[in-house]
Write a structure and sequence with these properties.
With 299 residues, the protein is of the alpha/beta class. 53% of the residues lie in helices and 12% in strands. The chain has a 7-stranded mixed β-sheet with strand order 3-2-1-4-6-5-7, sandwiched between helices. It is elongated.
């Protein structure tokens, strides 16, 4: 018997208007876990009632708060239970609950703290082209070396469950969790999974909205966690550009001994660019100072 077979496993399903598919997902997960928790994120259909009737515990949001808040509620619930393993599964039936043991294997062997079910290690053909392109971009922005940073099919060991608590409300939560985990030294492993599109609606947002939501979430997270890099480097470049235009302004004025339209233009550009650069630098320093104080108070 494997070490984790005696430990409690909880399947967590964030759901929003998934009455068509929630039953097959809940029932599919029940064969491999000790408990199923569904976070009904303000659904206006029978999602919560169906899940509850099938024996799942249901956490109810009165209004739709977003996937990130649904996952936050699920992490809090699992922390309170003291469970050893948390498995997240999308409610749209794109994931096969029968592959939960595959996700569990690296946890059982002590190889990982987080296991990601990757759609891109073996089943590339079944994934739409636009998803592959967008996911590749987000992989580079989130965590280099991971093939599927946006996968919602994951297994978290107890250490990861205790240390992770998402703050992002929207679709950027998957990237946030991985960035947090990497910063905290948690071990992340991927395993190949299959995926089925077209059973349920795989996103409540159109592709453009979904992409922008994740993109701006990653930008926001990066700006908060690495303010000196995010603001400092562009700020320094702008200051240097501003100094160059100041030099050009002085050179033009010295040569012509009068203020021309070009001299005035260079002067205004120099002033504006330098001000923006200094503001960016000061913002980076202030945010870095605040984040350092917060980290020390939490430590």
């Amino acid at each position: 018997m494997s070490p984790l077979s005696r430990l409690s496993r909880v399947a967590c399903i964030p759901a929003y208007n998934e009455e068509r598919t929630i039953a097959m997902v809940v029932v599919g997960c029940q064969s491999f876990v000790d408990k199923v928790i569904v976070c009904d994120d303000g659904s206006q259909d029978m999602t919560a009632e169906i899940a509850k009737k099938l024996g799942a515990e249901v956490i109810r949001h009165d209004q739709n708060l977003g996937k990130g808040q649904a996952l936050r509620s699920l992490f809090i619930a699992v922390k309170k239970l003291g469970s050893d393993v948390m498995i997240t599964v999308d409610a749209d039936a794109q994931h096969d609950p029968g592959e939960i043991p595959k996700l569990m294997a690296p946890l059982e062997s002590g190889e990982a703290d987080i296991v990601i079910g990757s759609r891109f290690l073996q089943s590339r053909g079944s994934v739409p082209q636009h998803r592959r392109v967008v996911n590749r971009l987000f992989n580079l922005m989130t965590l280099d070396g991971i093939s599927d940073t946006q996968s919602g099919f994951r297994a978290y060991g107890k250490k990861a469950v205790q240390r992770i608590l998402p703050a992002e409300a929207g679709m950027g939560v998957d990237s946030e969790i991985l960035m947090d985990a990497a910063s905290d030294g948690l071990r992340i492993v991927e395993v190949p999974i299959t995926v089925s599109y077209g059973v349920g609606k795989t996103s409540k947002l159109n592709p453009a909205h979904h992409t922008l939501d994740v993109f701006f979430s990653i930008v926001k997270i990066t700006s908060i966690r690495h303010p000196l890099v995010f603001y400092g480097i562009p700020g320094s470049v702008l200051v240097l550009v501003g100094l160059y235009y100041f030099y050009r302004t002085i050179a033009l004025f010295s040569g012509e001994q009068q203020i021309t339209t070009l001299t005035l233009t260079y002067g205004l550009v120099a002033f504006a660019v330098t001000i923006f650069g200094l503001l960016a630098l000061f913002t980076g320093v202030i945010l870095f100072t605040i984040s350092s104080v917060v980290r020390k108070s939490q430590g």
